[in-house]
Structure prediction request, 748 residues.
Amino acid sequence: MTTWKEQLADQIPETMGILIDTYEAQIELRKQGKLDEKVFAEQRLRKGAYGQRYDNGQRHDGVQTRQLSYPSGELVKGPDTLWDAPGMQRIKIPYGGLTARQLEVLSELADEYADGILHITTRQDIQLHYVHIDDTPDLMRRLAAVGITTQEACGNSVRNITACTLAGVCHDEVFDVSPYAEAMTQFLLGHDDVQDFGRKFKVAFSGCAGHACGLVKMHDLGLLAQTRDVDGEIVRGFTVFVGGGLGTVPHQAKVLVDFCSEEQLLPLTQAVSRVFARLGEKKNRNRARIKFLVAKLGIDEFRRLVQEELETVPHDDRHTAYLDSLGDFTYEPAKAGMSLNGTAMPDGFANWYQTNVYHQAQHGYSAITLHLPLGDFTAQQGFHLADIARRFVGDNIRLSVEQNIVLRWVADADLPAIYRELHAIGMGDAGAGTIVDITTCPGTDTCKLGIASSRGLTAELRTRLIERINLLPDAVRELKIKVSGCFNSCGQHHVADIGFFGNSRRSGNHKMPHFQVVLGGQWHENAGSYGLAVGAAPAKRVPDVLEALTNRYVAERAEDESFQSWVKDLGRKAIKAMLQPYMQLPSFDDQPEYFSDWGDSRVYTIDDIGVGECAGEVVSLFSLEIAKAESTHFEALLALDDGNFHLADEQAYKAMVLAARALVRTKYLDVGDDYDNIVNEFRSRFYDTELVYDRFAKGKFARYLFKRHDQIPNRVNEDYAHQMMDETQLFIENIHTAEQRINGVIVS
Prediction:
């Protein structure tokens, strides 16, 4: 039977294929107990492969778990480990851009490897749940064959780079930021300077200051499109924000540079990354985001360090090469733009048209939003949607940070027809961008950190709001609600008009699911300001809290007064008094229904909360680099077993070079990928200085590398290849020992 690796060999980019092969080897090494669990965890997280939460290890909705154990006999305790139950696979979709074929493949993978559901995240990613780790390499190969990667979808790295969903079609944008987001994605993906972060790093682009599409002010690095008149010529660039972020303690981003020209965009980003990698916290994960470094140093000192670093960033042709191809980034509509006039309107079209249709800057075209409850759609819906896209919009599909799908370049005359087809597959709901369009994180459904059921609450709120949506005044219909299952703000509750995040309280001997109420966040102006918590209510009272808030807002607001302004004028004391009746804790005997969460009939508990995997362990750069060498050596062993002695020799040699590079990078980050340069740096820094000498070998193992580097073997047979395997293993072990000795670890 032909494997996916064999079938797709000529369709997968070489670099991506190597990364996936290496990852597959690491899975096998971990099963054999030959790769440290923390190192492997960081490696798999950088491929977007997560563990996920389960209900006491029970099977979910017909998804069959596979019982596995390490052949070495080592066992991993707990029902939710990757080895005895499926997990979650995150897939990066830069700036949310998808083609019809990519959507089709994603749907195939959801259908074949997951539970048939595709989930859109607030970073324009796709997540598949209940995926078994053994299936992930082939899943990644099938994605790579259509230009999608999971590389660095998680872990202590640069996450998916987001951008305005309407970029390129918006009336108010300065210019289309999509090609810049694409260029930065490709430049930073796997870049040496982003491999040694203490935590994740999030980047966003926005084409204008007023709207919320890009949310640049709540990101580690935010890029806001600007132009300047320089000697009579209009020059493109960006206002650069740094140090923003939500999480448990939200920080508003600070302006790093008022105007960064497009030529300096990538070098400046690289300089920021290098400063963060060098000075960012590594030991305490709770303080390891760049927002804490900026707060600690102050923006003026951080700016000085970045400018200083910018002068030392090595030259790279890619810094500006992408500018020559900006004109190639174009959109091809499936049809010519035509007016809607005179076209028959189906039932329900008017409401949908009012909330889900945006008239593009290009005459005769509109962008339509598919409002997806909970950010989910099925594989079957995905197949149908790919077909609809091909006929109506071509490859102009975007995922939004509000967990919806946007089809762009719809000819206005086709709006009734596309509505009929979307309605037929259950994707024609009205209400996009209104109060019923609630953003939510996975919460206790699958996240190990979930405290309360964010999805359950969201479903309940949405149901109640839809029942009375036509009775709500416009001021309420336009409010933003966002829900997180814990304090980490994955649902972005801080920037909502009304936000909720999960916590718990005790009443007697029982715990009760609660949600903290956060009011007054500003979604517009790129997440212009954050809301503040005003108190926690039992989960089952949250719908009542929402109704009380919206009713009083409607009754008391001045004409055209925003919710944010009303909250500020009312004051926290008055709000607390208003909500106090909903915050009372009943006893278990009096109201037992309060002691179960939304969508779950069981008595509530938080005993199964685990260690979150959203960033992984803080693993040293050397550990990550040497793991690549060990995986490559494993590939060499497989080649030897297959009788491919030339490949075994090449892989073994590569493994030694990678091991040497791992050690060199502890002293010299900019060593690069050139074999000659790596070997020369290793020789001068560690061999000539005798840092790789030990009591017995006296540098002998280092000479294995030099011998193979200096002379390509004339004849490679089984004996020679076998010898190379042994020499490579000894060299890698020597590198481990040298690193420990150099860094003060006692080596017996």
Notes: Residues 210 and 525 are 4 Å apart (CA to CA). The first helix runs from residue 4 to 7. Residues 55-81 have pLDDT under 50 and may be disordered. The two ends are 49 Å apart (CA to CA).
